[in-house]
Queue: 2 jobs
Job 1
Amino acid sequence: MPRNKEGKTLVIGALGQIGQDLLDALYTKYGVDQVVAADIRHPQTPTAGPFRVLDVMDRSALFRLIEEEDIRRLYNLAAILSARGEQNPALAWDLNMVGLLNSLEAARETQLEQIFWPSSIAVFGPHSPRANTPQYCTMDPNTVYGISKLAGERWCEYYAEKYGVDVRSIRYPGLISYKAAPGGGTTDYAVAIFHEALKHGQYTSFLCKGTYLPMMYMPDAIRATLQLMDAPKESIKIRSSYNLGGISFAPEELAAEIKKHIPHFRCSYESDFRQKIADSWPGSIDDSHAQKDWGWEIEYDMAAMTADMLAHLEGVTA
Ligand code: NAD
Ligand code: SER
């Protein structure tokens, strides 16, 4: 097993939807004692490796933790996502920006080897091309979350070019997973639908039929993240954030796929404020730069993802 002989890896926001899966992958890669999980809240069950309470907005606490734990790599996952961000725009802007800037400053000042910060399909907006949205195009996000991600991308590129910080980033599509609940995004319906299908045999989607969005199963997202972080420095041509396509589907298509496994499942549709957010986002994404620069290839299609989600959740809800 490759060991972090020269310092540990820190994951901030480690108790969230991505963090829980990323931690497991990093434990496997580096060993549990080499990965420090941090979050603003305490874990409900102890993490396998070391855990520290940290508010990423507290710059001196972050610097202290980096020094005390001999951190060399940082993943900053702490953020407020799109739907929650619209409930409290000022807090979303503060956390998403200050958290990133503190992480970038920590990377620069303590000369971290690498830093990962995720962006999102939310950087696109109503004037971006909706189909096969390219890496470079009009970007006019109209959520505070999307605005913070687009500004964050510019900061990442700035720190890479001006200070040589090895910052890497992916514009994740909506992520579907079974380990942890999603944290308040517009794509959360695609997780909730599985839980409700198994528990109650029915679900009311807050996005209406025909709302195509790019989505990805978590194992693919984690594999992409580690692949990007393992890629040689010279192959990383984009320091803002890489488009990542995933699988594109509408709620009724996912419902139909679930119905193949749960024949009595019924899905209805009552859109709420999240519909407007979804309508401003791409329906599908062109990720040819990720393919070319670091060899990205997707594994899970909708059928494989659905079967795997249900197989894992059946045990949990039984
Ligand atoms: P999440 O909401 O599930 O988890 C975020 C975690 O950050 C939570 O555990 C929360 O307690 C923690 N946190 C909040 N404030 C904090 C603070 N001040 N200091 C330290 N920790 C704090 O989010 P997620 O889905 O795991 O997303 C992680 C990152 O990936 C975010 O930047 C998000 O924008 C991005 N992303 C996620 C998706 C997705 O579908 N999940 C898609 C695109 C991008
Ligand atoms: N899944 C995220 C959200 O819906 C996209 O970044 O907010």
Note: The longest strand covers residues 71-76.
Job 2
Amino acid sequence: MKEYNPHEIEPRLQGEWAKADLFHVPDNDEKPKKYILEMFPYPSGDIHMGHVRNYSIGDVLARYHRMRGYDVLHPMGWDAFGLPAENAAIKHHSHPAKWTYANIETQKSSFKRMGFSYDWDRTVVACDPEYYRWGQWIFEQFWKKGLVERRNSPVNWCPSCETVLANEQVIEGRCWRCHSEVEKRDLTQWYFKITDYAQELLDDLDQLDGWPERVKQQQANWIGRSEGAEVDFILCDADGNAPADPTDDDIITVFTTRADTLFGCSFFVLAPEYKGLDKLVAGTEYEQPVKDLVEAAKKVTAVERAQGNHEKHGAFTGRYVMNPINGQKVPVWVADYVVADYGTGAVMAVPCGDQRDFEFARAYDLPIVPIILGEDDPLYDTLKDEQNRVVTSVDWDEAYATEGRLVQSGPYTGMVGGKHSEGEAAVVKALEEMGRGRRKVEYRLRDWLISRQRYWGNPIPAIHCEHCGTVPVPEEDLPVMLPKDIDLAAGETLATHEEFINTTCPVCGRPAKRETDTMDTFTCSSWYYMRYTDPHNDQAPFDSAKVNSWMPVDQYIGGIEHAILHLLYSRFYTKALRDLGLVNFDEPFTNLLCQGMVKDSNGETMSKSKGNVIAPEDMIAEYGADAVRTYILFMAPPDKDLQWDEEGLAGIYKFLNRVWRQVFDLVGAAGEDTLYQPANKGKEKPADAAKTLLRERHRVVGKVGDDMERDNFNTAIAAIMELSNAAGTFLHVTSAEDRAANSEWAALARDAAETIVKLLAPMAPHWADELWNTALGHEGFLYNEPWPTFDPEKAKADEVELAVQVNGKVRARITVAADAAEDDVRAAALEAVAAHTEGKQVVKAIVIPGRLVNIVVK
Ligand code: ANZ
Ligand code: ZN
Ligand code: ZN
């Protein structure tokens, strides 16, 4: 028998697979299709265990479905634009492309060394002009469709990355990449109008049954639909006189989810960035204090604003507005807790019902009018029938933010108040009738800011002409190529690259300037999975028939950190491309699996700075790729964190060795009987061992199939181990001669061997192929072999052993038919413990099928 040597067989088989072009998948085959996809990596250097886990999961699924008879699309590529390449280039005085392509080569050879079954012919590299050309083309289609806007507004600026960021890339006020605190700047930037799809992005989450709940929840929260109303307040003088016929300039509108609380509005607050604030205070004594407040508000960091519990500061504007519901005059303040880009940037402050307003009222000594109360509130009895404002202060510690009864609220007094309440509906109706309010749905989702002031990205294909404005680069001139001659270390950027900038206007032919911003790298990852279906197309991003035949992705696998960013953007791209008529599906990823992290042996995240990184190549060098793959899949369910334990890996390596030997033995190819233990023969009868093996063979095939369909790779491997145990017992008690002499046993042994090898083939493909070719004497690769079938009848155990307890103590064991009726089992149990129940009364006898019979006597 040949010894198991992964270091010899793995590279050799990888070469054979490549030579046979094994993983090439045709487009127009009759077979049913599966698209298995792992998130493409950023080429940051060599691969880490997180990659190994991510791609091992994908590879097992790809190989499994292939054996199940599908044509499997399983591609790999690189998300190759982005800042780390630029930083590396600056550090080493080289070009980002050099660093990027070198890393791609390294990663690619690591993936090959892991034995992943990618169709390398379909590779997509985001920084290749053949790919980014079509990213630019899609940008232009979006533009034509009205989904692109260029506008000036306050944006997130990362001072360390020296570029703007989308809202999704600001995590608790910090840059997603470098964790620096993000600043606000007023800049003219490019946006994708993802907000046009806010409602559909929210609604269609319901279709995504195959997505983790928490990802859908995060997306729903991010989209943040909020149902309420807009209410118009009219500017008035200090005596409360408002123009009878107000113009738009006299009106300030607010968005509120709590119109029911209008009677409790005791002041009014504008965001520091509110448009028109300057005009309100110009030339008054309030101008300077307001300006000071606005300046100071810029220093309230985004981190603090996001948390919302900073000390609130404000200034009075000297102006008043009239509350449309009761004609009351309300002072207008400006304060740093109101954000400019939500609702209208103005709020009707109701300190009694809103905690932020409450805190502000306390800080500036503004009235807190109780207009909503719980029925158990001490004030309730006094105020419950009071329509007028008689109490204007409370001794509370916080606002009353839940449902309650409206008081001091005119005709609405006594109604239930709260979000979507009776009171809210009544007030909105009244406002609508007087033309001072209307229903409104707000979303937290903002348009996607996609321009970046960085070199290593996809150039935005636009030209600025003094005469014609900003116009798209003609399609036939795409791609706008990134210039190669740039010295980033010397501070050069696209914006300083004269040759790049200067061009002619495609409309009027006069000199014009190119746009120098590049696109967010998340635009590259928003459609790469479509390009895989037609990667070499030079006429279009992809052929619609091809993309529609493969997409949506059946199983997508990647990290939870993309819950909002990549996964939301990809859904937007899909819907926009659908509306452009380029694809015919609504959602890109039918099933999503977010794999858990790989932690070190103490449960800590692995990082270079902690020095606790386990390098995949070291583990491969020691145990081979098959053991690493199988171990990673065995150690934990795929969505849970995995704690590294090298002993466990050594155990899996031993298991592969043991089964290797078993397979040779089972087919009598070991040369000698390596596992036969004549001394054991007496303990277990060979006929019983054969029976058990046959049953396990059928049971385990059924179980592994079920487990694979549910991504339970760990329990699938555990079941294969059980089958191997049954095979082991059989080999201990039968000799090669015994088996050769009994044709039924010989057939059983071969079938068991082939089954084990096939079941492990998705996890340990080299090991399996080598056994398939040597011990089992077949040609070709298991990738092309059908998955084993099973007979559920044969999988059934015919007898089971049950413990019999009397008053909690095990007194006997009985063996009964597996399908025995409960009454028969009870009778057998009572008979077996008759000595312990004699003279006593049996109170109950409970049968727990397959496990025990519990008898209580007294
Ligand atoms: C009056 C009111 C009374 C409010 C009350 C709440 C409770 P969601 O649910 O998140 O949509 N708001 C509106 N625009 C704002 C802005 N630009 N910056 C800060 N806050 C703003 O929140 C809606 C509520 O947030 C609105 O309803 C408004 O305060 C506030 F007892 O109006 B409410
Ligand atoms: Zn940054
Ligand atoms: Zn022009």
Note: The first strand starts at residue 33 and ends at 38.
